[in-house]
Design the sequence.
């Protein structure tokens, strides 16, 4: 770094470490690309608007099997490894589960030596940083690039022009589109190192640059200096910021432009790499699979067809067939407000050629399937439906848990399932055991290795070998010590970073995830109020001490859940300063939940809250991380909870609440919320306290809207599930009072979580969707 060791700052050490680790990966990185090229291997192109990789350096050290020697080298230099990596920014290039899943899958593909590129956008600012002011969420910009991006390589030589706007002439000419503007997509590559370091893939993120000729010289000469720079400003805006919401209600033009920019640059890159070694585009499906992470990159079909037809002279039908063979689409949500639709007028304005191709695809579906396709419309009510587009341009469509896939088939795309039975399949989500056990929980990872030997890192089913030890009191005690260690680590961090005290002997009960009404953080905080009231009513009883930890961000415009954040903080302020209950109940809500915070919270948790309204959480992946780290789950029959419970055993899982079918039926009953509240004295007491301003004495009416909504509407069935949740929580207390029993349940959870490895999930994609053979 050009700095004398004695004068080096932590940042210098971190940059040096980044360059050193990247250097260590370089031979493998080049070899992997060379082998893919020279052996003509098929490769996967994972297109995603979001990636949440977490901090890169410790993960790279672990996967290169260098963590211990790196740490020892730093010791020799009188530098603390943990301090070095603690300064690393956590790239927040995603909102939540979908982006984190993409990162786990990239890591597993590299570990399995599956040739792959991740493609995304290099947002200058990631997801906002969250602060609290008077309990309210305040958003600040995330400046993750201020000390550079030292683990990545910018590749100015790899750039593509991405066209926008303009006019199309009739559909049969090969160069029908005369775009108004072109932006340049420039590549930034991050190595994705597989476990063991034998295979290294690439995460390629695009940033937008103005094309060299974008400054409008005519306007400039005419004295319109600002107008002349308009297009340049537009370019710089495009990759400036990640959309912080999971609906498309704001800034629609910019969002669609981002999606097209990602898709076009990536598909051009896929074709470019193919044409480096091949001539016959009809063989594209033998060499490339493209996976669309939700509909955000669903322009990939039209874009691939456009490039094949307009630039390479392929016929439309051949191009469309090729696209279908190459593409796959993963659906991550059934929420109607998150299903993308783009106004036809906007699409015509920005992407006239793509609109033309979509119209032709629509005609083609009807020509091929006749009246069986009467219910299929890619365009309806002046909107392009991106879900239908993604389905008809893909040979496989998958949901992310068994229940979710069932609902995708039955409720979301029944008309499309009927056209091509078998196109829709399930691939239950998974998580990488390298980051979520080896990195996040070294104490438990060491105990596992001592007990069953190494190898579980790449063969997570081997955790089953822990099961006999669940009967061994010595092992259970050692297991308990790992949990304690994780709690102490968390306590130190909470104290140092946030000045928060953590009572480490208490039951640690954690709900961390994006705020959404369907995830029902509200149910959790209402129960917490109820617990507080009951402790106060019977202070002599033997209450199990609990710490309720919350973490998560709300979309800036989602006012209903911003109220819930404020309520949690308001309740916390009152409860935490109540001397009568302090030793038995505490609320902690550290701001700015992200991957790094997850790595600290999850290993320390005793209880994992997975309490969504049944039928609404597509899968969840936090649920898997907690169970793998020996937390027990309290949860509804939703998403992957269903499969986790089947694997770990019903007796090792705290189930409560309405099923997905019951949810639908309950919503049909008029006055269901009022009826549920009237039947539950504890819930009435809670709502009365909130309505009276117990937690907002300076503004008693602060939560009147929220309470009113619960009595009169309650779409997410918080009231209907309250009593069941309470009974389940009482069972949690009972089980926790018997530490050996609790630990036996926890160890059994760990031992039976092997199938939730992202290695299993990625193998499934390779076999059933990508048609990529396993490495020998
Ligand atoms: C859409 C338009 C504009 C801006 C953002 C979006 C958008 C962003 C993220 C829409 C949806 C987004 O994510 C959906 C998501 O994260 N789904 C989650 O996916 C996880 C991985 O499969 C599942 O585990 C979660 O259950 C599911 O909620």
Sequence:
């Amino acid at each position: 770094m050009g700095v004398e060791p004695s004068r080096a700052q932590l940042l210098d050490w971190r940059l040096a470490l980044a360059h050193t680790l990247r250097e260590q990966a370089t031979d493998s990185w080049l070899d992997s690309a060379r082998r893919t090229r020279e052996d003509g291997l098929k490769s996967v192109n994972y297109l995603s608007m979001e990636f949440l990789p977490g901090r890169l350096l410790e993960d790279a050290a672990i996967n290169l099997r260098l963590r211990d020697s790196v740490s020892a080298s730093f010791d020799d230099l009188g530098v603390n490894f943990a301090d070095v990596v603690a300064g690393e920014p956590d790239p927040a290039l995603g909102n939540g589960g979908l982006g984190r899943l993409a990162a786990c899958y990239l890591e597993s593909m590299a570990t399995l030596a599956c040739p792959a590129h991740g493609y995304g956008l290099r947002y200058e600012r990631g997801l906002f940083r969250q602060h609290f002011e008077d309990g309210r969420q305040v958003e600040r910009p995330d400046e993750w690039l201020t000390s550079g991006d030292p683990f990545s390589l910018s590749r100015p030589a790899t750039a593509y022009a991405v066209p926008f706007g303009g006019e199309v002439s009739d559909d049969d000419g090969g160069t029908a589109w005369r775009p108004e503007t072109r932006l340049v997509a420039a590549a930034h590559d991050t190595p994705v190192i597989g476990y063991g370091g034998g295979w290294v893939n690439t995460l390629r993120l695009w940033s937008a640059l103005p094309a060299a000729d974008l400054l409008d010289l005519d306007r400039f000469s005419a004295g319109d200096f600002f107008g002349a720079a308009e297009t340049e400003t537009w370019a710089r805006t495009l990759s400036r910021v990640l959309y912080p919401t999971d609906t498309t209600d704001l800034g629609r033009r910019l969002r669609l432009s981002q999606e097209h920019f990602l898709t076009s640059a990536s598909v051009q890159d896929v074709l470019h790499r193919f044409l480096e070694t091949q001539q016959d585009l009809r063989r594209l499906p033998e060499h490339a699979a493209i996976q669309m992470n939700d509909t955000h990159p669903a322009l990939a079909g039209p874009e691939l067809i456009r490039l094949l037809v307009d630039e390479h002279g392929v016929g439309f039908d051949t191009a469309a067939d090729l696209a279908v063979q190459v593409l796959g689409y993963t659906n991550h949500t059934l929420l109607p407000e998150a299903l993308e639709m783009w106004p036809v007028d906007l699409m015509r304005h920005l992407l006239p050629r793509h609109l033309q191709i979509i119209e032709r695809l629509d005609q083609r579906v009807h020509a091929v399937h006749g009246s069986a396709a009467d219910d299929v419309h890619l365009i309806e009510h002046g909107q392009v439906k991106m879900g239908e587009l993604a389905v008809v341009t893909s040979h496989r469509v998958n949901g992310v848990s068994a229940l979710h896939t069932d609902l995708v088939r039955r409720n979301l795309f029944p008309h499309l399932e009927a056209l091509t039975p078998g196109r829709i399949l399930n691939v239950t989500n998974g998580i990488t055991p390298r980051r979520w056990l080896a990195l996040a929980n070294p104490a438990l990872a060491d105990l596992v290795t001592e007990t069953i030997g190494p190898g579980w890192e790449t063969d997570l089913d081997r955790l089953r070998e822990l099961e006999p030890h669940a009967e061994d009191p010595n092992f259970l005690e050692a297991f308990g010590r790992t949990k304690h260690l994780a709690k102490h680590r968390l306590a130190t961090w909470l104290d140092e970073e946030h000045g928060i005290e953590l009572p480490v002997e208490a039951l640690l009960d954690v709900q961390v995830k994006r705020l959404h009404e369907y995830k029902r953080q509200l149910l959790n905080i209402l129960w917490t109020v109820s617990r507080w009231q009951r402790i106060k009513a019977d202070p002599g009883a033997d209450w199990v001490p609990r710490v309720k930890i919350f973490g998560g961000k709300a979309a800036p415009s989602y006012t209903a859940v911003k109220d819930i954040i404020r309520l949690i903080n308001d309740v916390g302020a009152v409860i935490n300063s109540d001397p009568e209950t302090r030793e038995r109940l505490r609320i902690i809500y550290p701001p700015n939940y992200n991957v790094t915070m997850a790595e600290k919270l999850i290993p320390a948790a005793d209880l994992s809250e997975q309490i969504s309204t049944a039928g609404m959480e597509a899968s969840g992946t936090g649920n898997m991380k907690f169970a793998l780290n020996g937390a027990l789950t309290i949860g509804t029959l939703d998403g992957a909870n269903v499969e986790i419970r089947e694997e770990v055993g019903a007796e090792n899982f705290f189930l409560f609440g309405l099923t997905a079918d019951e949810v639908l039926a309950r919503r049909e009953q008029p006055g269901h919320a009022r009826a549920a509240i009237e039947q539950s004295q504890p819930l009435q007491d809670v709502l009365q306290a909130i309505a009276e301003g117990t937690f907002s004495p300076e503004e008693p009416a602060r939560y009147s809207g929220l309470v009113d909504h619960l009595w009169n509407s309650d779409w997410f069935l918080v009231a209907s599930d309250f009593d069941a949740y309470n009974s389940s929580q009482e069972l949690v207390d009972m089980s926790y009072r018997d530490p050996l029993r609790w630990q036996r349940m926890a160890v059994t959870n760990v031992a039976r979580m092997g199938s939730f490895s992202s290695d299993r999930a990625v193998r499934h994609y390779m076999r059933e969707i990508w048609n990529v053979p396993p490495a020998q």
Residues 417 and 538 are 57 Å apart (CA to CA). Residues 10-38 form the longest helix (29 residues).
